[in-house]
Amino acid sequence: MLNLFQFLELFPVIRYIFFHAKKRKKRMPLLPGLKNQDHNTMPLYKTKHISRSVGTSTQILVWKVTESYAELLEEVVLNDSNRIRLDGMKSEMHQRAFLSVRKLLQETGHTDLDLYYDEFGKPHLQGEKHISITHSHNFSAIIISGETVGIDIELQRDKITRIADKFCDSEFQFLDMDSEEYIRKLTVIWGAKEAIFKIRNEKGISFKDHISVEEFRINVKQTVAKLHFNNLVKDFNIHFEEIEDFTLVYAFEN
Ligand SMILES: CC(C)(COP(=O)(O)OP(=O)(O)OC[C@H]1O[C@@H](n2cnc3c(N)ncnc32)[C@H](O)[C@@H]1OP(=O)(O)O)[C@@H](O)C(=O)NCCC(=O)NCCS
Questions:
Q1: Fold (CATH) for 153-253
Q2: Domain 35-146 belongs in CATH node 3.30.1490.20
Q3: Do 211 and 226 meet the contact criterion of CB atoms below 8 Å apart?
Q4: pLDDT, tens digit, 9 for 90 and up, residues 36-48
Q5: Is any ligand 1 atom within 6 A of the Cβ of residue 98?
Q6: Model pTM?
Q7: Does 123 contact ligand 1 (Cβ within 6 A)?
Q8: Closest ligand 1 atom, residue 194 Cα
Q9: Is residue 121 within 6 Å of ligand 1 at its C-beta?
Q10: Full DSSP string of 112-178
Q11: Which residue would you say has higher pLDDT here, 54 or 107?
């Protein structure tokens, strides 16, 4: 039988076990077919490694934000300018998404101290690798690659049909407005164009006039796209997947 002092000594141990058991319960299942990763804290929603050709590697990481602002803040390193930026954000959801991107970075062995932004707001990593960042509502994602890459995540929403003619042109040749896939396909096209824009980062690019996405099937999860801009033609490989009601799209410049 324990006396009171022995019990109190045990208390921090009991509290530690309780706290970690609670954390373990919150773990998110990974999508089927993906490598399960053993994380002590809130895990990634999804990670993917791609090697498109010998010597190139790409990591895509997705986070589903369920943690509080305080929990996230406690777990990430922030550089001074990003700390100021975080404090200036009006929406807490935006702050949590911003912090969750740092969690993703840390999953790849980088920290916020390795990240900097150019004057257009495009993120860069110190060293050779390229990075692109996206967040929407409670999802965030990053792509890190030896290739030039862009990423975008978008919620599938009815209202995208109202602006379709602002960002589609040649795509209307294969889009079927009456299909139940119309909104899903529009979201892929939008995401592809955002991802390409993030790669090129050039003022004056029009989604409608300068970027065209080739016909694709949702279940194939890939397509190609072209950018015609400033007398140059650039080709891109587009990959996409649907995660809950969101569409994640990433683009590689060929
Ligand atoms: C900059 C832009 C690409 C951001 O995309 P978004 O869908 O609004 O937001 P996302 O969450 O997907 O991406 C935000 C991230 O993009 C990155 N980003 C911002 N500006 C960028 C740029 N110029 N180039 C590349 N990446 C950029 C940042 O990392 C940012 O997140 P962070 O600041 O928290 O790190 C977008 O606002 C934009 O300007 N698009 C082009 C405008 C356009 O032509 N629209 C067509 C209308 S028909």
A1: Ribosomal Protein L22; Chain A (3.90.470)
A2: no
A3: yes
A4: 343 334 457 778 8
A5: yes
A6: 0.85
A7: yes
A8: 3
A9: yes
A10: GGGEEE-TTS-EEESSS-EEEEEEETTEEEEEEESS-EEEEEEE--GGGGGGHHHH-SGGGGT--TT
A11: 107
